[in-house]
Specification:
alpha/beta; globular; Rossmann fold; 6-stranded mixed sheet; 13 helices; 17 strands; 439 residues; single chain; 4-stranded antiparallel sheet
Length: 439
C-alpha cells in the first residue's frame, strides 16, 4: 500500500564518499579517435537514423532525429566519417543502434560555438524548439526529453520551478562542480526556464554537503530576486523530484501523477546548464560532465567527456583500475548499472563511472527475511518492501502490483539497509518489467 503521509519519513544517511572528487575541478577528457554514439540515449522512442555508412559529419551535426513526441535528437560529438552502424548493448543493459564515427577533422575542445544569442526577444515556442533541436535530456539520470517536460499547456499554471541540485547519490560530484565552476551560466539557464514556464516562485535545492556550492549559487542568483536557494538535509533519496517538491513546498504528488499536477516543474542543474548552452551558444548536447571515482580507480576525476567515448578509455585516462577492483558501475552506486563490458560508450544519461575495490558483502538470493522492518522505515515512498518481496516470492504478482510495486522508485534504500542482504530492489525491478510485458 502507498501512503502519501509517509513522505517525510524514511530515507538513509549514507557515507557519501564525495571527498574523492568534490574538490577536483572539471577537466576536459581526451577526444576519442572513434566515437560510438547510441541512438537510444533517452526515455521514449529511439531516434531515427538520418545518415549512412561513409557519410562525412561535423561536430554537432544531426545524425538521428527524434521519432515521436517522447524522443530526442542525437548529434555527432566529433567530426569524422561514419564507418559503421551496428546493434550493440549500452550501459543500462539495453540494446541500441550505434553509429560509429572515426575522428577526422577539426573540433572544438568545448564543443561550444563562438556565438551568443539574445534569447529574450524569442517566443516561448521558439526557445522550446531550440532545446528540442539540441537534443537536451535530463542529465540527472532519467534522461527524459527536456522539451517534453517543458511543454506546459496554456491552461496549466506553473506555480513552482525547482532546480534540483541535491545530487544525493554517493560518490557523484558532477553537479556539485558545475555549481561551483559555472554558477553564472546555471543562473542564466534558470532565467531561460523562467521565460518558458513563467513560474510564480523559483527554488534551487542543494544538499548541506555542498556548502561551497550553496554559497556560490546564492551569490550568482542575486541578479534574479525571484530565485531562492533552499538548503536540503543530506538524506538519501532527497533528490527524487517528488520528495524535493514535498520538502520545499509541502505539496504531495499522488501515485501516477506528475509534478505539473501540483503546478511544479523540476529540472536538474546540469540540464539547466545544457539549456543555457543550447539556447545561447547554439550547442547541441554532445558532451557531459562525468565523475570517474571510487576506491578501485587510480586517479578519481571530474571529466567533461564527448558522448560516445568508450568507458574503458575514460578509466585509462584516470590511471586505470586498481588490481583489487571488484566492480564498475555506471551511474550512482544505489541506482546505477554494474558493467560486464567496459567497451560500452558514455551517453547522455551517464553521470558517473564508479570503480569499487572494497570487498562488499554479497547479496543473498536465498536470504531469509527476519521481519525487522528496516526496509519499511527506509522507504521514503511509503511502500512495504518486505510485504512486496513475500508476495513476489510466492508468485502472487497481481497482488504485488496492487500493493504498489509499480510505484517503487528503485532507489535501493531497502536493499542497502536489509540485514539479510536480500536483493529487494532487483526483485522489484524484475517484477515491474514482467508486469509491463504482460500489458
Amino acid at each position: 500500500m502507498y501512503f502519501s503521509k509517509f513522505f517525510d519519513l524514511g530515507g538513509l544517511h549514507i557515507e557519501d564518499y564525495k571527498y574523492l572528487t568534490n574538490s577536483k575541478k572539471i577537466e576536459n577528457a581526451f577526444i576519442p579517435s572513434i566515437a560510438y554514439i547510441p541512438l537510444s540515449q533517452h526515455i521514449g522512442k529511439s531516434a531515427k537514423l538520418t545518415i549512412n555508412v561513409g557519410d562525412r559529419v561535423e561536430e554537432g551535426d544531426l545524425i538521428a532525429k527524434a521519432d515521436g513526441f517522447v524522443s530526442s535528437n542525437i548529434h555527432s560529438s566529433i567530426p569524422g566519417t561514419v564507418i559503421d552502424i551496428k546493434e550493440s548493448f549500452i550501459y543500462n543493459g539495453k540494446k541500441s543502434t550505434i553509429v560509429v564515427i572515426k575522428l577526422n577533422g577539426t573540433f572544438s575542445r568545448t564543443g561550444q560555438k563562438e556565438v551568443r544569442f539574445d534569447w529574450r526577444s524569442l517566443s516561448r515556442t521558439s526557445i522550446l524548439n531550440i532545446i528540442k533541436d539540441a537534443g537536451v535530456v535530463g542529465l540527472g539520470g532519467a534522461a527524459f526529453p527536456t522539451h517534453v517536460k517543458l511543454s506546459v499547456q496554456d491552461d496549466s499554471k506553473v506555480e513552482y520551478l525547482y532546480i534540483n541540485g541535491a545530487e544525493c547519490e554517493p560518490f557523484i560530484t558532477s553537479d556539485h562542480r558545475q555549481m561551483l565552476e559555472r554558477g553564472e551560466d546555471i543562473i542564466e539557464g534558470i532565467n531561460i526556464l523562467e521565460k518558458i514556464v513563467t513560474p510564480d516562485k523559483i527554488y534551487v535545492g542543494i544538499e548541506t554537503n555542498k556548502r561551497d556550492a550553496i554559497k556560490n549559487i546564492k551569490n550568482c542568483a542575486k541578479v534574479n530576486p525571484k530565485i531562492k536557494v533552499i538548503t536540503l538535509n543530506a538524506i538519501y533519496p532527497r533528490g527524487d523530484e517528488k520528495l524535493l517538491i514535498k520538502f520545499i513546498s509541502g505539496k504531495v504528488i499522488e501515485p501516477n501523477k506528475l509534478p505539473l499536477d501540483v503546478g511544479a516543474v523540476v529540472v536538474n542543474v546540469s540540464t539547466t546548464l545544457a539549456i543555457k548552452e543550447a539556447v545561447i551558444n547554439d550547442k547541441p548536447l554532445i558532451d557531459r560532465v562525468v565523475t570517474v571515482t571510487g576506491s578501485g580507480i587510480v586517479n578519481p576525476k571530474n571529466l567533461k567527456i564527448k558522448i560516445g567515448t568508450p568507458i574503458k578509455d575514460i578509466i585509462e585516462e584516470c590511471g586505470g583500475l586498481k588490481p583489487n577492483n571488484k566492480k564498475v558501475i555506471v551511474g550512482g552506486p544505489m541506482m546505477g548499472f554494474s558493467q560486464v563490458d567496459l567497451d560500452v560508450p558514455v551517453s547522455k544519461g551517464c553521470s558517473a563511472i564508479i570503480a569499487i575495490a572494497d570487498e562488499y558483502e554479497k547479496f543473498n538470493i536465498n536470504g531469509v527475511c527476519i521481519s525487522c522492518g528496516k526496509c519499511i522505515s527506509a522507504c521514503k515512498f511509503g511502500l512495504m518492501p518486505t510485504t512486496l518481496n513475500r508476495l513476489i516470492k510466492n508468485k502472487l504478482f497481481d497482488e504485488a502490483v496492487k500493493s504498489g510495486v509499480m510505484l517503487c522508485k528503485e532507489c535501493g534504500a531497502c536493499s542497502y539497509i536489509c540485514p539479510a542482504k536480500i536483493p529487494l530492489v532487483q526483485v522489484f525491478k524484475m517484477t515491474k518489467e514482467f508486469a509491463r510485458r504482460l500489458k
